[in-house]
Amino acid sequence: MPLPKLLALTTCAAAACAAVAAISGCGDQAMSQEPAAASGQTLEGQNVFRYETFGDEKFWTETLRLHEVVEKSVDPTTGLSVGLKVDADALPAGILDDADLKSPATTVALLKLNAIVGLQAKVDENGRLIQLGVTCALCHSTVDDSVAPGIGRRRDGWPNRDLNVGAIIALSPALTPEQKKVYSSWGPGKYDPRYNQDGKSTPLVIPPAYGLAKVEKVTYTGEGSISYWNAYVAVTQMHGQGNFSDPRIGLEVTASPDLVTPKLEALAAYQHSLAAPPPPAGTVNAAAAGRGKLVFNQTCAVCHLGGSGTDSNDGRLHAPAETGMNADYAARTSSLKYRTTPLRGLWQHPPYFHDGSAASLADVVKHYNTARSLGLSADQKSDLAEYLKTL
Residue 292 and residue 125: Cα distance in Å, rounded? Predict the structure, then answer.
């Protein structure tokens, strides 16, 4: 489809968006992941998760000037190569058939359609990109690739392990060469949520945002609840306009009006509604997993309480040496320790551990067999790794 037609169709899409925005935002008529019997608060939270920038456009546009880079240099092929995802439900049928995927103007047209997951933009009447912001969904949603790789229906809560956040930020003309070097070093699926606070860099694997309904401490180092971390990220990482305070790390940010705090309750309700995805049919050896469950109950359940849970709900955190973890990131936090990560959807999101140091579930088992002196046989390790796929 020629680019002028693609741009013209955005007018129709905008009208459709306005009709449903009060409920759940543009493109949600055919959602792939709407929670069953969702409450009004949950639907409000979905809209916050997918589309709310908390006023962060000022930073991404005026400070980093990324709208200039996108408009001039980021065509859809390039965007997909750094992990950006396209929401197929926001696209009119057939719109991509003849679109020029090597033209940055096509990216701008997709932004006008509100079709790039996790990005919010303002495009003027001349097709110029004049404002750009980010949402929670940028890092914590992906798509099912049902149209093409990187293009499909949303999967909220799934970590975008293809997303190279650092490489995208490093495109900013406002950064120093040293900053660009640090951001460029992180690689796909990783992000350091403290680099802009303490100047150190130990990037973390982007975690899933599903399966958190019974998890009281959501960060790798157990600082606080889901709303604590949502506020921290919204204010200090997304650079939204809001309040955040944590005397433990000497950080207090205030803003007026506060665009973050009033949205936290609904956002948490939506995130808590997202269940971990089960493994695809035919991908688990049931007999081996059954044997592995016995091994898990004997060796792992002391920390992963209730099977896939976490003893951090009981206030317990672990020194890095206790579990053989690299201590560098914990040393930058108020707890100085790591929580037991709740196990959910493990089949879906390698690599594992906070730093991605385990490429597979077999590597996870191997690590703990050594670090915790479990003494597992080769068969037991294999069975345990198979069981972990089911969690």
Answer: 60
